[in-house]
């Protein structure tokens, strides 16, 4: 019989080891579908590694893909730390991008040092405000935020489509439902010539650092953690739980909104309804892989981005659908959940109870 | 008034019930899981699994009811996975459920893409046809509205009765409800908390998969990416609205179907004056509203979301 016993102290080695093991396990499990698709497993993994790390171009693609994932990962990590289940990062990302386009595609003309902070502020405010709705529905009316944030994603996507086919449609867009391009002054510059990685990456890294400092070094971070660990105890201890939820919701939504700004102003240049291939949902996996640690989010986002970029490049070369990436991402979430058990608990193999007499004979 | 004409037309109610059918399956499935104390956010992905596997079984050559059984079986497998992760291992039901949704969706899409690498339009199957019940189908109004549905709709309606009967009239149902309210008491009766919970999640997941299968085998005759489109999440909202009761679940689903059918007709009436997206938003907004209305007085199963460990009170 196996018994799980809670560990007294969780060593930090385990905290790092667990997601690494989970990632490796997910990749190993992915060998099954890859071979089922009739491909050479070893060759597929080599192609993936090359596609993700094999050239400066590959690494630039990897970092460009990691940028929104760091931000949506932070959005999920902050919210989940308070056990505020914000599953709406996808929608918040889109309103962030929409706000950035509304402000940054010619409505205002100013030099970059004004435009860039402006679109960042607009996107973060839009994302935060959107998350305010389910947060208030939770705190004031008791409506489960999981369902409301999930459903709002669909509402927002339809709203974005409506805006792109209506008021915000680019008249020069040849009839495609897309917004006017972000003006040159509001564009986040590329970091290196001829590579797609842009300054959004730096914004994401700085955000991770700021969130880390808030979570570990401020009273506010303490309040968030206390609320997440035990709401009633936190309330009893005089922590303003409702205010904490609202603040967490605002920050989480703002981070997801920032991801939208970075994508639209750093990578795409204009808004379409397929801006995000599920970055909001993948952010949840990133946050869980990171054990909700803000700095861990950066590493986890790079891993997940490598899976996506590597799988894209591999599927171009071999007969394996690039849905293999989604499969690996989902598997890493399930694997990290299970392996997380080994951090919080130690597994003890317990002998089934034997009659006393027999036990005495044995020893 | 033309709106009254809409509401009194048999074809409107036929559409309402057709739209409600996958939701009836989904809400019943979610209801069974939650009554046993397990939130199953895998629902959205399990819908995809049911839609894909049921369709693919028929596409390969199985007959329709075998396809339905395959879908239910595949749904139950993902239910088993969710059950193992959340019941004996006691992992977060929220995160595990979302993981199941991501995993189930990815497995379905990958399998579909691998089986059909380059198809320009999704291949079609011979889907379920509307039943023609002799006598009943010719009744005025009720005939076309209720008795010209496909067999899976009747299966859904029968399942409402069955789930209601099992939950409220059998010892098994009592045990399932008890395990979602007070698992320690169930264990004190010598019953297995783990067995009941995992079993309930598996059965519930099988029903969710049937909701998906209805879409590819009755409502449409092909599988599309993104066809589930939040229906699973809507079911999670509706189950709260239905206060975890099968009868109210049916009512909620049909009400929802009626709103959705009305919205489609309204869209035709109004034409291009209002963007179509406004109408398409209505189902999601409605679900949020339904959830908010009942949220304060919702009587959640008391042990919902709480893992139970043997011998630990």
From TrEMBL, chain A:
GO MF annotation: an example: transmembrane transporter activity
A single cellular component GO annotation: plasma membrane
Subcellular location: Cell membrane
Lineage top rank: taxon: Bacteria
Pfam families with a match to the protein in the record: BPD_transp_2
Cell division recorded as keyword: no
Keywords, comma-separated and alphabetical: Cell membrane, Membrane, Transmembrane, Transmembrane helix
Leader peptide range in chain numbering: none
Transmembrane intervals: 12-37, 57-80, 92-108, 114-134, 146-164, 197-215, 278-311, 323-343
Membrane topology according to the record: Multi-pass membrane protein
Keyword Signal belongs to the record: no
Protein name: ABC transporter permease
Organism annotation: Pseudovibrio exalbescens
From TrEMBL, chain B:
Gene Ontology molecular function, alphabetical: transmembrane transporter activity
InterPro entries in the cross-refs: ABC_transp_permease
Broad class of where this protein is predominantly found: membrane
UniProtKB keywords: Cell membrane, Membrane, Transmembrane, Transmembrane helix
Membrane topology: Multi-pass membrane protein
Regions that span the bilayer: 12-31, 38-58, 64-87, 146-168, 198-217, 223-242, 278-295
Subcellular location per the Swiss-Prot or TrEMBL entry: Cell membrane
Pfam families, A to Z: BPD_transp_2
This protein's GO CC annotations: plasma membrane
The protein, known as: ABC transporter permease
Organism: Pseudovibrio exalbescens
